[in-house]
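Dear colleague,

Following up on Tuesday's group meeting, I ran the structure prediction for the two-component complex that the binding team flagged. I've pasted the input sequences exactly as they went in, so you can double-check that nothing got truncated or mislabelled along the way. The structure tokens for the whole assembly follow below. Feel free to forward this to whoever is handling the docking comparison.

Inputs:
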Amino acid sequence: MNSFIRNAKKNHLLFVLCTLGPVLLLFIFIRIIPIIRTAYYSFTNYSLVIPKPALVGLENYKTMLQEPNFWEAFKNTAIITLACVFVTLTVALVFSVLLRRIERHSPIYEMLYFIPVVTPWVPATVIWRWLYDVKFGLINQVLEQLKLPNQAWLQNPEQVIYAIILVSIWKTLGYYMIIFSVGLKNIPDIYYEASYIDGASYVKQFRFITIPLLKPIVLFAMIMASIQFFQTFTVSYVISSEAQGSPSYECKVMVWEIYRNGFNFYKMGYASAEAMVLLVFILIFILIQFRVVRYEVE
Amino acid sequence: MKSSNSVYPQAAVGHRPVARRKRKIKIHKVLIHQLLSAGLIFILVPFFWILFTSLKNGEEILRATPTIWPEKLTMDNYNAVVTMQQFPLFILNSFVISTLSMASVLLTSILGGYAFAKFNFPLKNFFFILILATAIVPFEVYMVSVYVTVGKLGFFDSYFGIVFPILIMSFGVFFIRQFSLAIPNELLDAARIDGGSEFWILLRVVVPLCTTPLMALGIFAFAEAWAFFIWPLIIVNTKGMYTIELGLMQFHKRFYMDHGPISAGAIVSVLPMLIVFLLLRRRFIQGVTLSGMKL
């Protein structure tokens, strides 16, 4: 028996080596090394046009802080993230609570709200761009019917960011509705019944039962959503892509800055510095959320 | 899902309050349906608007007084997209890439997830945390570096180059690990005593027990790969290798004013995912549900 166990143990290690080994190698090669190398590039003047990169210390970071483009991109990304996380999650939470009250019909609503989630970002943006069209877009035609002035949603620098936020909310709402529905289904009904006997109103139940018990899911959703919106790129890129005739105002976002510097200007080192800053912001944002939510639990 | 976990519903809630509560809820229900339907208008109108536009001819789209329903249905826009813009080829490319990514993610996730769940080996926790930690680093952060690697390997403009960053998914390893943990050790040991090799056990015991999460993960990986945009945008230069996302983007960029064909292009590019979703809608939602539950 002893030798059987010893043999089995040896076999186990061999098995782990054969299964996990290649997977780990892939992770190291495709994720870990590129992340570390990006950190390294950020301290060099690496570029596809310069044959030999040299270490330049904090040069890239210094230039970045003086670059108005970077700050504009940072500001826009922060606004989009905050607005989208807040609005999407709030609406999704309210809707999923409402869905619980009409259990029998909730699958059909969940399915329909999920359609934009399976629509990839490019067609989603193309669809909305047509809705926003200055003259022929549905939104402006409705405004016209209401005798309100047409709005140049995509050409007005102040409005384009709201246009982007709206598309993002539309696209992600259904996903978070389902996430919250799962959390709600895991709350035992007995809590609600007990509080009902004690005479609690729906609002009170929501505040004192639903919210506290849903906290882990809310935190998960907040983190998922902030990571997702911090990488916002496709909507701005497609909405602002240069078009013949009517170029839209460009809403710069951080990933776009990385893309532009890295792949249009080939300033790989500088782009890497921007990427590291993006990563640090995401980490800080997640940390704050952990702190706030945990604090509220206590 | 169970609709009620109540232990003594009748005993706890008296007869009268139940009756009163029912009436109250009925009124609420109508309101809830109205509110959710209003939300549905916001969700669905964009699709109908683009669908109707794609069926109109150029003159009708740009008419001063708008029509909602197309006056004269025309398939010209779809013809233009399918014959002139090589959209079928782009869809094929997307399909190949998504399938490759899905297969690789499924394979690596079951291998890694099962090993992490059921075996002990040196540095296990370290490796696991390492893989998990990469999940919060968006691809956009290190794409510059991946670009350099793929360039050195000479895989620009190839399926392998496009699939390269999505061969693995850290969430997938985590997800399958969570489900593998639930497999009883006795079952695995019984199979071992019966003389099953470890690979046989993985293939014949573990994989069948993980069918549901594997299906959910497969759909998720496929959809993710299908929607992958920034990477193909960077490394694909020849039109023959365009994914459908990239094809629609370039088409949109060049022919912005041709609203009809653009709308048809958007519909054509949404359609494959929409069909997959409608066929497998319960699996899609189950996937999100499972990932939410296994936190």
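DSSP finds 16 helices and no strands in chain B.

Cheers,
M.
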